[in-house]
Amino acid sequence: MTARPKPSPLFLGIDTGGTYTDAVLWSEAGGPSGKVLAKAKALTTRHDLAVGISGAVDAVLQKAGTDPAAIKLVSMSTTLATNALVEGQGGRVALVMIGFAEGDLARDGLKAALGTDPVVFCPGGHDVHGNAAKLDLSGLEAALPELEKSVSGFAVCAYFATRNPAHELSARNLIRDRTGLPVTASHELSAKLGGPRRALTTLLNARLISMIDRLVAATEGFLTARNIAAPLMVVRGDGALVSAAFARQRPIETILSGPAASLVGARHMTGLDDAVVSDIGGTTTDVAVLDKGRPRLDPEGATVGGFRTMVEAVAMRTFGLGGDSEVALEDGVLNPKILLGPRRLVPLALAGMIHGEAVTSELERQLRAPNPGRMDGRLAVRTGVPERLAAGLTGAEAKLYELIGAVPQALDRLLTSNAQNATLNRLVSRGLVHVAGFTPSDAAHVLGRQANWDAAAARLGAELFARRRDGRGQFIAASPEAISERVLTTLTRLSAEVILETAFAEDGLDGAATVAHALVQRAVDAHPGIARLSVALDRPVIGLGASAPLHYAGLAELVGNRCVVPEDTDVANALGAVVGQVRVSAEARVSQPKEGLFRVASGESVRDFNDEAAAIAAAEKDVRAIAAGRAKDAGTDSAEIEIASEFRVSTVEGQRMFIEAHVVAVASGRPRIAV
Q1: If residue 131 lies in a helix (H) or strand (E), which one and from where to where?
Q2: pLDDT > 90 fraction of the chain, expressed in percent and rounded
Q3: Tens digits of per-residue pLDDT, 162-198?
Q4: For the purposes of burial, counting CB atoms within 10 Å of the CB of 103, is it exposed (0-12), middle (13-18) or buried (19 or more)?
Q5: What are phi and psi of 38, to 5 degrees?
Q6: To 10 degrees, what angle do helices 418-429 and 395-403 make?
Q7: Mean pLDDT, range 346-359, rounded to an integer
Q8: Would you state the pLDDT for residue 447?
Q9: Is the distance from CB of 197 to CB of 164 less than 8 angstroms?
Q10: Which residues contact 400 (CB under 8 A, 6 or more apart)?
C-alpha cells in the first residue's frame, strides 16, 4: 500500500506596523518560491496589540480554511521599534555611565537622545586592555529608591566594557536585586569601541523593551488561545530571524525589522537581484538597495530617527513620510507649500470610523465658525497603554493627561495656551497620547482612492484644511478635492526625493537631500530653467506597501526608471518574515597589554595567556561555543558556524610584533519548526 505524502508544513508570517497588522499564510509547496495561501490586514491596536494580531491572523485562517495545528512556524516583523525612534517615543529609562564624564554626553547625539531622562555617573571602568579602575556604585545605590518609581528600565554603559564587562555586570546585578526592573548592559549589544555611541544604543534598547515585550506577549497569548503550538520568531534589522525570547532581551536589534523583512519579501516576489526598494507605510518610508540579490548592510550601524546606533542592520534610510503623515502648511510665505511628516497622526477617517459622532460633530462645529482656527481639525485621545508607563510625568503633563480621555477631544477646547501645546507634544512623544488630524490617507478617502475608513470625516478635515489662508489672506484651496490632490501629489514628489536621496548617499555624494530636491523640482516644474537637468536610476524601483499602487503610480517619470509593484506588495513584510534564516555572531578580542602576555576578552570572561597561538585558539573556541549557544537561543538546531580572524601586526627591525586580533564566529541555519 502506497503511503500518503506528508503535507507540506505551513508558515504564518505577521507584520505589526504603525497602522496595520498584516498576516500571510505561506507554504513551501507550489514552486521554487512557495505559495501564498491567504493574506489579510487588520488595524494595529496599540492599546492591546493582541486585538490587531488576532484580527489579521483569524482572517487568514478563515480564508485558507486551515487547521491552526498545521502551522509549524510563526515569524513576525515589526516597525514598532523603528517608528518609536523616528517619533521620539519609548519608556522613560535611567542611564548609568561608569567611568565617563558629563562631557561625554555631548558626543554621538547621546544628550539629545537622553532628553529629560535621568543619568547617573559612577567612578570605574577599564582601560583598553581591560585593566580596572576603582569602581564606586554608592551614588547609584543611593539613587535607586527614587529612580525605580519613575523609570521603566535601566541602561548601563561602562568605559571599555567591551574589553572587560565586570563593572557593567556589578551595576546590572545591583539594579536587578534592588528594583527588579529590566537592565540592558552595553557589552550585551555590541563589541565595538566608542563608549557614547554604545551608551546611546543601550539607552534606546532599554526604552524599547516594554514595547517589544508587549508585542511578543500579545502574539504568544494569541497563539496559545488558537492552539498554534509553533515556535515564534522575530525578524532582526539585518533580515535574520531570532527567537522571540532573544528579541525580548535585545529589542534594539529589531529596529528596521519591518524594512529588512520587506527586502527579503521584495526579492522573493520579484526575482530582481538589483533594485531600489521603497516601502511606504503609515508612518515611514524605508528605502534600501538590493545588490546581487542581497540587501546592502550598514556595518557602521543603523541610523534611525537621526541617531546612529551600533546595530548592524540593512543599510536602510528611514524617512518620516507615509500615508498617515501630518499635513502642515509652510509658514511665513505668500504661496505656502504643503509639508508632510515626520510625525504620524491618526487619520481623521480612521478616528471617525472608531469614534463616530465624537469626531464628526467637533469637525462640523469648527466648520461653522466664521474664521479658521489654528487648531482646527486636530483632536487628542489617549493611546490606552498601561498606566505604569505614565510614571514620571511633570505636574503640567499629569494635569493635561487627566483631561484627555478615551474619546477624542478637539484641541481648540482642550488647550488654552501655547505652553499646553508643548506639554501635549511631550505626552505624544511618551506614547501616551495620539493626535488625530488631516493626513494623505484622508486625502485618498476624499478622492475615492481609498475606502476602508470614514470618508465623511476625511472630507470634513479636508474642508477645514482647505480654508486655511496663504500670505495674501486667500484660501489655500478652492475645495476639499483640490487640497487632497495637492497632498497626494506632494507625497509622490517627496517619495521620489527620498529615493533619489538614498541613491546619491549610497554613491557617496554630499548634499544628497538638496540635490534630490532640486532635481525633482525641475522634473515637475513647467519652467525647468536655463540649465537642463535630468537623473535616472540604474535599476528599477520595487514599490512596497498597501498604498504603493496609489502613491507610486507617477513615480517612474520622476526617478527615470520603471517602478515594479508586486501582486502581494501589501504583505511583503509578513511574507519576508517567513522565508529568512537564523543568523547570529560572536566576537572576541586578543590584545597584548605587555610583551609576552596575550589577553582574550570574549563574552563575559577575560583570560590571560603566555602564548599567542594558545590565545587565538582559545578565542576561536570561545566564539564558536558562544555562537552555537546564541544560535540555539535564537531558534535553530542546525547552525553552520564560520570563523574569521583579523590580525593587526607591525614589523620592527624585521620582527613581527603582535598588536591585536579580532575573531568573529557567524552561525546560521533554518529555524526549528514544530514536529
Answers
A1: none
A2: 40
A3: 889 999 999 999 999 999 888 889 888 887 778 888 9
A4: exposed
A5: -165, 155
A6: 80
A7: 95
A8: 97
A9: no
A10: 414, 420, 423, 424, 427
- Cell, residue 278: 521603497
High-pLDDT (> 70) share of the chain, %: 93
- Select from 308, 301, 305 the least CA-distant residue to 318: 305
Residue 599 is predicted with a pLDDT of 93
Is residue 608 within 8 Å of 597, Cβ to Cβ?
yes
Beta-carbon neighbour count of residue 61 at 10 Å?
21
- What is the DSSP code (8-state) at residue 88? T
Q: Determine the distance from the C-alpha atom of residue 483 to the mean position of all C-alpha atoms in its chain, rounded to a whole number.
A: 31
Which residue is associated with the grid cell 599567542? 612
Cα(290)–Cα(274) distance, rounded to whole angstroms?
5
Which set of grid coordinates corresponds to residue 550? Answer: 496609489
> Quick one: cell of 575?
511574507
Q: Which of 3, 199, 92, 6 is CA-nearest to residue 675?
A: 6
3-state DSSP percent of the chain in helix, strand and coil, to 5: 40, 25, 35
Nearest to 430 by CA among 120, 17, 146, 117: 117
DSSP state of 106: G
The Cα–Cα gap between 233 and 247 comes to 9
Q: Which residues, 6 or more positions from 214, have their beta carbon under 8 angstroms from its beta carbon? A: 49
Average the pLDDT over each of 44-53, 116-125, 315-324, 535-544 and give the range with the smallest value: 44-53
Where does 250-300 have alpha helices with state H? 257-270
- Quickly count: other Cβ atoms within 10 Å of residue 112's Cβ: 13
Distance CA 580, CA 575 (A): 9
Residue 650 main-chain phi, psi, to 5 deg: -135, 165
Q: Which amino acid is at 61?
A: L
Q: In which order are the strands placed within the sheet that holds 183-185?
A: 119-122, 93-98, 153-158, 183-185
Strands (E), 518-612: 541-544, 563-564, 582-594, 597-602, 605-609
User: 468 near 371, Cβ under 8 Å?
Assistant: no
β-pairing, 10-16 with 20-27? antiparallel
Which backbone phi and psi does 227 adopt, to 5 degrees? 60, 35
- Cβ(62)–Cβ(166) below 8 Å: no
Residue whose C-alpha cell reads 585593566 in the numeric block: 131
Cα separation values, 381 from 81, 166, 326, 433, Å: 21, 45, 16, 6
Q: How do strand 183-185 and strand 153-158 relate by DSSP bridges?
A: parallel
Interhelix angle 512-524/480-506, nearest 10 degrees: 140
Picking from 6-15, 50-59, 224-233, 479-488, which range would have the lowest pLDDT averaged per residue? 6-15
Which residues neighbour 442 within 8 Å (Cβ) at sequence distance 6 or greater?
347, 348, 349, 457, 458, 461, 462, 484
What pLDDT shows up at residue 480? 96
Question: Does residue 3 have a pLDDT over 50?
Answer: no
Range of lowest pLDDT (167-171, 391-395, 450-454, 537-541):
391-395
- In the predicted structure, residue 536 carries a pLDDT above the cut 90: no
- Scored b (16 or more CB within 10 A) or e, 293-332 reads eebebbeebbbbbebbbbbbbbbbbbbbbbbbbbbbeeee
Cα-to-chain-centroid distance, residue 334: 37
- Integer Cα distance of 258 and 321 in angstroms: 15
User: Above 80 in pLDDT, residue 479?
Assistant: yes
The per-residue pLDDT for 30 is 60
1: confidence class by pLDDT, cuts 50, 70, 90:
very low
10-16 vs 35-43, strand pairing mode: unpaired
Residue-averaged pLDDT of the chain: 87
Q: Quote the pLDDT of residue 172.
A: 93
d(CA 266, CA 273): 10
pLDDT at 96 over 70: yes
